[in-house]
Specification:
The protein is 66% helix and 10% strand. The chain has 122 residues and is mainly alpha-helical. It has one domain. It has a two-stranded antiparallel sheet with strand order 1-3. Strands 2-4 form a two-stranded antiparallel ribbon. The longest helix is centred in the N-terminal third of the chain and has 32 residues. The radius of gyration is 19 Å and the shape is elongated.
Length: 122
């Protein structure tokens, strides 16, 4: 399934709620894997952000001069426009939707399953 980086950010924003779900193991596995893949793709979002800031000439740091801060502010609109456009890019990721009507069988929390997957892999 193709999703945009915006969708990935929204999925990760809902991660706390998803972790609390008690689902049959086969569905919990899908959710945990989707979260893990989204986390991997989120790393790309940070790299995209850094590249855009560099391309437009925005300097990052805590010890910026007043002149650097003014220059950054002047370029912020262009950077935001480029970043918003980049977030609309779609990537292939498995985030198959879960039909709650089909839930049955043994239940486990997504959070527990995620921890298990982190320890032993997929």
């Amino acid at each position: 399934m193709k999703v945009s980086y915006i969708d990935i950010i929204q999925l990760l924003s809902a991660q706390d709620e998803l972790n609390k779900l008690k689902l049959p193991a086969k569905y919990a596995i899908r959710v945990a894997r989707a979260i893990r893949r989204a986390q991997d793709y989120y790393k790309d979002v940070e790299e995209i952000r850094k590249k855009i800031l560099s391309d437009v000439g925005i300097v990052e740091g805590d010890d910026l001069t007043e002149e650097q801060k003014r220059q950054n502010e002047a370029k912020l609109g262009e950077a935001n426009e480029l970043f918003n456009k980049a977030l609309e890019e779609e990537v292939e990721i498995d985030v198959s939707p879960i039909s709650l009507a089909e839930l049955d069988g043994t239940e486990m929390s997504v959070e527990l399953l995620q921890k298990t997957l982190w320890l032993w892999g997929d």
